[in-house]
Amino acid sequence: MAKLYSKSHEWVEVQEGSRARVGVSDYAQKELGDIVFLELPDVGKEFHKAEQFGTIESTKSVSELFLPLAGKIVAVNQAVIDNPALVNQDPEGEGWLVEIEIEDKTQLEELLSPQDYRSFIAQEH
Amino acid sequence: MLFQTPLYPEHINQGAKLVDFAGWSMPLEYTSMLKEATQVRKTAGLFDVSHMGKIEIKGAQAEKFLQYLCSNDIASLQRGRMQYNLLLNERGGIIDDVMVYNLGSYFLLVVNAACASKDFSWLRVQGEKFEVAIEDKASFYALLALQGKAAAPILEQTLDSSVLTLSYMSCGVFYYSDFGSLLISRSGYSGEDGFEIWVENEFARRLWQRLQEVGRNYHLALCGLGARDILRLEAGYPLYGTDMDEETNPYEAGLGWAVKLEYKDFIGRSSLEKLKCKIRRRRFGFVMKERGFARSGYPILDAAGQELGVVKSGVYSPNLAQFIGNGFLDSEYAVEGKEVFIKIRNKPYLALTKKFPFLKLGVKKEG
């Protein structure tokens, strides 16, 4: 299944069933610059849609990470915590941040398709 | 409105990320400030620092005037040499930190961009009592900084071997038909060997491009202010406006070595004599032992949670692969190896105090 995007520049990719990976978009990592620190939640924590679930710090700034849809954390990518530069290198692949159990799959419909996300960025610029 | 340096078109062509710094549109980074800062310690980097101020002091009493305005001993500053100095107010607070060049027939002050107009007014007012002419020349020149162990071969191949006669903290004027009159010094803000080159505006782009061409064989990196900030903090150099201001005295800032109380009279001297023995806080470095980005303004705590001071600067050091920073600490904690905690988003992160510099520097102090 293709990735879906939020207006706060996170992506969601459904793996199987209601399990999904979440990360930040390539556009976001470019805007942030060198990423040097990630604060991610513990497995088991639950979040509402659009709730802050972590922090991402680049050489330039501190930014909040928002979960694009409600869910429970089922995995955290230790590789990006150990090496935050992975988010710059492969933001929409190996640089994923967390895996969640989606609470309500209908919330996926509220997210942007890759095409819609691209035009959203173009407008923002 | 933002000022642009003569090299602005080069920055645009290179796709630099620009940032507003002290009213100037300056490159923050070209690719990645971490890679840029790494490359300077490996080979070399080229910086546009044309935002720096350039004030010329001429006249029969130029030396006497500077001796009275500056903290360091201008009388010992020989022709063709440069010296780090502080401009102080009557309370002993730091108005700016400046580099003074003795060019024989006149002196040159290189001052921080954000302080340039303040410094100029201060010098003008103080200068009324002396036989001096004070001129702001910044708008006629660009300033390039070429830093790193490959800076010398790159500059030699771009110009000629005469530039190698400059030793650390020396300066001189060199003429080239392609680049006009260049004021070159062996100095910098990275802690590595390197040169700073004042070039007339009309030749600035040509010199920048030529250095880049020659530098290709040395993996010369174009560097922005982000890399400059990382490198100077790794070297333990303070940044005016961030690490110190008019409420900071030289002893707290760790700059007592640039104050010569015993030799001469100067503005701020009597206050400093009284202050010297009563220093309660000092600028000191720390290395994060728990991964966390210590940013300006974050509190520094002891194990019991009592506030010891505040972070002034913090970066991720790519050359140490660690987060580092500096801040003001109670004197008792301003020694190597003390455990302190940086409060980041309400959580304490362990750090160890560390003497400057954070790493071994390549700069050659002598010869």
Notes on the protein architecture:
The complex is a heterodimer of chains A (125) and B (367). With 125 residues, chain A is an alpha+beta fold. Chain A has a single domain (4-119), classed as OB fold (Dihydrolipoamide Acetyltransferase, E2P) (Beta Barrel), CATH 2.40.50.100. Chain A contains four helices and nine strands. Chain A has a six-stranded antiparallel β-sheet. A three-stranded antiparallel β-sheet of chain A has the order 4-6-7. In chain A, β2 and β3 form a beta hairpin. The radius of gyration of chain A is 13 Å and the shape is globular. The mean pLDDT of chain A is 95. With 367 residues, chain B is of the alpha+beta class. Among the domains of chain B are: 8-51 and 139-234, Probable tRNA modification gtpase trme, domain 1 (Gyrase A, domain 2), CATH 3.30.1360.120; 280-354, Aminomethyltransferase beta-barrel domains (Elongation Factor Tu (Ef-tu), domain 3). Helix content of chain B is 21%, strand content 33%. Chain B contains eight helices and 19 strands. Chain B has helices at 8-13, 33-42, 62-69, 116-127, 151-158, 201-215, 225-234, 269-275, and strands at 17-21, 24-29, 45-48, 53-58, 82-88, 94-102, 107-111, 133-136, 141-147, 171-176, 180-185, 194-200, 221-223, 281-288, 299-301, 307-317, 322-330, 339-344, 347-354. In chain B, the strands form four sheets. A six-stranded mixed β-sheet of chain B has the order 10-11-12-9-3-13. Chain B has a six-stranded antiparallel β-barrel with strand order 14-17-16-15-18-19. In chain B, α2 packs across α7 (225-234) and α5 crosses α6. In chain B, 47% of the residues are buried.
